[in-house]
Structures are given as structure tokens and as C-alpha cells.
What does this fold into?
Amino acid sequence: MPVHVLDHSLAKVHLTAMRDERTATEKFRWHLSRLAGLLFAEAAKDLELETIEVKTPLTTTQGHRIRRKVVLSPILRAGLGLVDGILPLVPDMIVAHIGICRNEETALPESYYAKLPSTLAEAEVFLLDPMLATGGSAVEAARQLKAAGANRLRLVCVVSAPEGIAAFKAAHPDVPVFTSAIDAGLNERCYIVPGLGDAGDRYFGT
Ligand code: PRP
Ligand code: URA
It folds into this structure.
């Protein structure tokens, strides 16, 4: 499956503001929310539709609705930052939650929570996380979603490292990746460079 890098002027501007260390929490949230909407629009571009009939004030014509239920699955915590920018775009979406935290010493993912709907097998599932660094968290989250039945899965992330993309593609070659940037790589602490720092800390102000 290909990696889609969003090529959109507004996305570039939002991402630049998020990278800037002077951007405080309130503005960081605002930019992430806007960027999430743009990324989701790209990732949802080819969502399968069904044709329906609609009656306008003048006549009857053909229109469309999304064929399957849409499920957002943010990886806690930082993935929550993408949710409110996406929710208004498809108002009846379901929000699943997967809690995964990187171990600060090993950078390996540790799962601590999951609340998934029972309808994943029939849904279009969007896995959300602002950062794809080593890829460990996204690989594990996608594994959990598939184990719970998901078979139409897409990964949406803001900043990716080549290492994370390689790891994710190796583990889940069937899952397309949508990102707004592929950065140079990881530093010795497995942070993305140039990146934007710790997304969760910047979003939640911790
Ligand atoms: C960050 C980020 C991803 C993960 C990416 O979360 O939001 O989930 O790291 O790194 P990886 O690709 O190497 O797994 P973190 O573990 O810091 O937890 P948080 O969202 O609670 O801050
Ligand atoms: N998690 C983050 O929040 N930022 C990184 O650069 C890597 C992992």
C-alpha cells in the first residue's frame, strides 16, 4: 500500500506552526485540529459510497452516502488531538480508543487500555496518531484493531519518520498511510527530527 504525503498549502502552514517551539498549547491544539481535518479529507477521499435518491425542491436526483460506518481510533494520548477536527466531517462517526505509551527507556510500546466497538469488521477504520516515530505504537494498535475484526484500515499521522514508515509497511502492508510530512529520521532517543517534540506534552500542556 502506498504512503500518501498530503500536498496542501494549508497543511504546510499548520505543520510549520506546530513545529515552532514558540507555539504554545492553545495554538498547537488549534493547528493540529485544522491539520487533522485536512489529513482526514485526503484519507477519506475514496471512501466507498452508495447511490441514493434525493428529492430537491425542484425534482428528484441521485446523490451519495457513505456505505459503511466510519470509526476513528486515536492512540491515547496524543491521537486524541486529531479527533475534534475530524468529528464534524462525518457526524455519526464512532470513536474507539487504544491506550499505548512508549516506554521512555526502550521506546517500545506498552498497551494500557482498549475500548473498541463490536462492529469493526463492517467499518472503515481510521487509526490516528500525530507521530509515527519507530512505528512501534502504530504497529501494535493496528494489530489490536485487526485482531478485533478491522479489515478496512487506514493510518493517519501528522509527522512520520522513514523508520516508522518502514516498520509499519513491513507489519501491515495492506494498510495505507496518510501523513503530512516524512522527516529526516530519529535521534538517539527515538524522537523524530526535525519533528515537533513530544506531541502529547505539547497538546496537553504537560
Ligand atoms: C507518542 C506518539 C505515538 C508514539 C510514536 O506517544 O503520540 O503514539 O509516541 O512513537 P513510536 O512510533 O516510536 O511508537 P507517547 O508514547 O509519547 O504517549 P502519549 O501520547 O501519551 O504522550
Ligand atoms: N513521540 C512524540 O511525541 N514525538 C516524537 O518525535 C516521537 C515520539
The radius of gyration is 17 Å. The helical segments are 9-19, 25-43, 83-86, 136-147, 162-171, 199-204.
